[in-house]
Amino acid sequence: MLVDSPPEQRAETAPAPPTRRAIRALGLLVSLAILLLVALASIAIGAKQLPLDQVWHGLFHGTGTYGDVVVDARLSRTVLGLLAGAALGLSGAVLQALTRNPLADPGLLGINAGASAAVVTAITYFGVSTLNGYVWFAFLGAALVGALVWFLGGSRGATPVRLALAGTAISAALYGYLQAVMITDDAALNKLRFWTVGSLASASDSTILQVVPFLAAGTLLALGLARPLNAVAMGDDTARALGANLGRTRALAMLAATVLCGAATAACGPIAFVGLMVPHVVRSFTGPDLRWILPYATVLSPVLLLGADVIGRVVARPAELQVGIVTAIIGGPVFILLVRRRRTAQL
């Protein structure tokens, strides 16, 4: 027997009026234009100032001069920021729908902790000393922790609460291990001090090529889960009444989030707040429909990440602040504001 859902839940899944769809589509185009401008700023602006004619020459007529080399490095950094930002925002949106918690982020399920612990292990016990080696260990650590959280959360019988509790417990244990190893091993501490903060400064063509296949697969999987995640976000009973396969949807969502966040963390280190802030802000003007939240988060998250990276290069010239520090400075007050708004709404 079919169970009719409450009016407000039916409204969440009902097709948007043509005018609203047109506005959302126009907003997505505007977001793409903003992303293009921020990407150009990321190439043109850096810790070392270059005239615009040198930037232009480096982009289209590179001949190996100092300016051309700098622009080439910025281009790789910008591409990695685009990919990592999209992955973090998309994984955050998926996890918020999966856990039915609008304040969730990729760190909630222990993915960042798994990647960090794996990198510490690789440096300390296996002698890995290059970024290309870190990438594979970080991705493996993220994947293993994602699978462990899924198993401890009940596998196909997993619930949002179980997944969050399992992820929190594993994160605490792994960060304890991380700190213990770094305190007792100076070499590991020196090699990890920038990676654990989160940075785009070590971007290279080889790193990008290594993570692109994972990011592409995770993005396609996440975008394909928009409809079933819409049902899951409304509660188990309603999702079953709508014909959603809860176990399969949660398993695929976990896989997508792990692949996306794992690959981004492997390439850049753990970067906080991007996966939390952007999906939450996007939801405020798109509504709860993940068919719009996911594309918007994919476009606007790189805007935040690249914008923070540009700010980090400018405020500390001739040095620079790592992008993970800038996003934390921005994200802390925003997170407090979001929590206060939710608390006020509940009063």
Structure, described:
The two termini are 37 Å apart. This protein has 15 helices and no strands. The chain has helices spanning 7-13, 18-44, 52-60, 66-99, 111-126, 131-152, 160-184, 186-192, 205-224, 226-232, 236-241, 246-268, 274-286, 290-315, 323-346. It is globular and about 65 Å long. The chain is mainly α and 347 residues long. Helix content is 77%, strand content 0%.
Briefly, what is this?
The protein has helices at residues 7-13, 18-44, 52-60, 66-99, 111-126, 131-152, 160-184, 186-192, 205-224, 226-232, 236-241, 246-268, 274-286, 290-315, 323-346. It is mainly α.
Mean pLDDT over the full residue set: 83
Major beta sheet summary: none
Weakly predicted, low-confidence segments: 1-13
Helix content: over 70%
Anisotropy-based shape? globular
Radius of gyration: 21 Å
